[in-house]
Amino acid sequence: MSLTLEGKTCLVTGGSRGIGRAIALKLADFGADVVITYSRSADAAEEVKAEIEKKGRKSKALQADAVSLARAEEVVNEIVEDWGKLDVIVNNAGITKDNLILRMTEEQWDDVITTNLKSIFNYSKAAAKPMMRNRGGSIINISSVVGISGNAGQSNYAASKAGIIGFTKSYAKELSSRNIRANVVAPGYILTDMTGELDEKVLEGIKAETPLGRAGEANEVADAVVFLASDMSSYITGEVIRVDGGMAM
Ligand code: NDP
């Protein structure tokens, strides 16, 4: 059997830039129709949609703040009404608001937990019934190695990313009997706008701590997601796949 996503309908939250963009394009490369959501980058999102359509696949770019359950339900309902079903959700939307615990504000804590963790509850919950009706589905949640190892200055981010792992395993246990799989991809240091804000010294340190000795590319995260989206991973659920050059082993 070769890896194909033909006939599958996928949703990627935060698909306008970075890792989400790479995931959306690669899902389309393997034959999927792909909806992306975004928060503010309408032009970038429209470009991703156009690129997917150029590959001969259907696409939609929907503005949807991932923190809203009501909007998540609207997005999922629109996909099911227009395209008949939803096979795969990649919960990718995420932010950082770094600070040391002593200086961290309540707002920094709440924003990161809500955007990174509640969003995953929102879309996973919204998708559960349509996926049950469809007799299966695959949920792929993007965590981080920081959720496994912790990181000074990122307690809010680490808590959100560790929470994703606990949520995903619980979801997998609840919904496996309905043939709905749920897995986590935990990237290490990947070159995107998010990491572009780190200074040169910090970046060199991260590279030194990575056994493969380099930063990762968004495409390399997308490869793991494609596998988990496909039927090639049909007996894998509740798993955490690190894509981190060995950083957190
Ligand atoms: P970017 O900042 O490059 O992109 C973030 C994406 O998320 C954008 O598409 C953005 O949309 C979207 N987004 C942010 N907030 C919301 C929201 N409230 N509602 C909807 N969409 C939103 O980040 P990365 O690509 O680097 O990160 C993607 C995921 O991977 C995140 O979950 C991140 O935590 C995780 N990750 C990244 C690592 C890295 O090294 N880069 C390492 C480990 C994990 P818009 O363009 O509209 O702002």
Notes on the protein architecture:
- This protein is of the alpha/beta class and 249 residues long.
- The chain contains nine helices and seven strands.
- Helix 1 links the parallel strand 1 and strand 2.
- The protein is globular, with a radius of gyration of 17 Å.
- The two termini are 31 Å apart.
- The protein binds NADPH dihydro-nicotinamide-adenine-dinucleotide phosphate (NDP).
Ions and ligands: NADPH dihydro-nicotinamide-adenine-dinucleotide phosphate
Cα radius of gyration in angstroms = 17 Å
Give the overall form.
globular
Run of helices and strands: EHEHEHEHEHHEHHHE
* Beta-strand share of residues: 5-15%
- Tell me the quaternary state: single chain
Instruction: Sketch the major β-sheet.
Output: 7 strands, parallel
Arithmetic mean pLDDT: 97
Please name the defining characteristics of this protein:
single chain, 249 residues, alpha/beta, 9 helices, binds NADPH dihydro-nicotinamide-adenine-dinucleotide phosphate
